[in-house]
């Protein structure tokens, strides 16, 4: 196995340039039946833990035999990680355009995207998965060329590059974190059973549609391919949420890396035995049952349930404090009660909230 590194300039300001560091693990002999893997982390600037998981995965892979190429990209959005406000990293949204950094990928099937569109006829002409991968890569370049004359949007410039880097893959893992969260994974409904192989305790099942995020941007073209060719879809793409933002935890990173390592063993990418680790019972929730709680008033919220904890209908899960009403004790606290049974998955990192702010997200109507 050989590890190589290359850098690619991806952004710049008047103060300097920003580059992606692209690591590639290449086997001595490629097994054509083994899936090619692409893993990236830290597209949102404050979501740091995926970088640690990549480092720990590299440590685990040392001296191991792999059967196919593995591409690893830590800090996939270096500009986002550089935008600091005091000690806080403002990295979820582009500070110039206001766009969510993980909703900017190219939809190959939308007429609003300009060039780079893939037609059903073009998919029919692709006789193999490799043909289709080439088509996807060509469409990215077509989109880039189309926008050269007047310049390309700064969001698209980064994200079509990431899409292009992922276009060879059969497995894509996009590593994120929540504000304050537990470990959970997003995956399309056709991969519900395969999601268990990642050994995450909480699994959010989403429709196999394009929504602008990396997992959807990479699996949706393959949904279309297999629909047209009436074949089984084996392409796997997930968003892995690795705890809370603004935190690096080496011990947790090793546990995350072991789960990824064992998953790649199951997929035939790594030729080794699985590493022994605690096994999680998988809990599933459909996207329609993934509920957000919004602050009914402005105030200061106290969370009574931590991410990963269950709550019962009618239980007080948050208290909203109004310190401008201390002369009226009965109005100081607004209790927020659970309307149904559920599981807290993540909540906002700040207790200072405004009315209508998304303050907590939870699984409801969940199953094992």
From TrEMBL:
Keyword Zinc annotated: yes
Signal peptide interval: none
Record key words, sorted: Hydrolase, Metal-binding, Zinc
Cofactor or coenzyme needed: Zn(2+)
Highest rank taxon of the organism: Bacteria
Residue ranges constituting the Succinylglutamate desuccinylase/Aspartoacylase catalytic domain according to the UniProt record: 35-123
Entry keyword Hydrolase: yes
Protein name in the entry: Succinylglutamate desuccinylase/Aspartoacylase catalytic domain-containing protein
Native source organism of the sequence: Halobacteriovorax vibrionivorans
């Amino acid at each position: 196995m050989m590890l190589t590194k290359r850098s690619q300039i991806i952004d710049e300001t008047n103060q300097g340039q920003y580059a992606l560091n692209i690591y590639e693990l290449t086997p001595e002999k490629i097994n054509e039946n083994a899936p090619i893997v692409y893993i990236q982390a830290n597209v949102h600037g404050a979501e740091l833990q995926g970088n640690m998981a990549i480092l720990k995965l590299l440590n685990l892979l040392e001296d191991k035999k792999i059967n196919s190429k593995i591409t690893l990209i830590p800090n996939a959005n270096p500009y986002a990680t550089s935008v600091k406000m005091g000690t806080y990293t403002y990295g979820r949204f582009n500070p110039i355009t206001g766009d969510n950094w993980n909703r900017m990928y190219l939809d190959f099937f939308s007429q609003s995207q300009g060039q780079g569109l893939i037609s059903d006829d073009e998919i029919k002409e692709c006789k193999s998965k490799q043909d289709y991968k080439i088509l996807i890569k060509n469409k990215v370049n077509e989109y880039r060329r189309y926008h050269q004359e007047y310049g390309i949007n700064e969001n698209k410039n980064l994200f079509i590059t990431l899409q292009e880097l992922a276009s060879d893959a059969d497995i894509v893992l996009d590593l994120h974190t929540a504000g304050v969260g537990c470990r959970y994974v997003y995956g399309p409904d056709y991969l519900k059973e395969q999601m268990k192989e990642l050994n995450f305790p909480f699994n959010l099942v989403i429709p196999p549609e394009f929504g602008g995020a990396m997992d959807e941007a990479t699996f949706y073209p393959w949904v279309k391919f297999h629909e047209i060719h009436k074949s089984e879809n084996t392409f796997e793409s997930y968003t892995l949420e690795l705890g809370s933002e603004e935190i690096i935890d080496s011990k947790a990173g090793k546990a995350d890396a072991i789960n990824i390592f064992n998953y790649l063993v199951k997929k035939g990418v790594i030729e080794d035995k699985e590493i022994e680790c605690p096994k999680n019972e998988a809990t599933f929730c459909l996207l329609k049952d993934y509920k957000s709680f919004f602050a009914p008033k402005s105030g200061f919220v106290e969370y009574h349930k931590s991410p990963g904890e269950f709550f019962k209908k009618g239980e007080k899960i948050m208290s909203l404090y109004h310190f401008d009403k201390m002369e009226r004790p009965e109005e100081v606290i607004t209790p927020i009660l659970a309307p149904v049974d559920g599981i807290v998955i993540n909540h906002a990192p700040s207790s200072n909230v405004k009315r209508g702010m998304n303050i907590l997200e939870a699984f409801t109507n969940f199953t094992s």
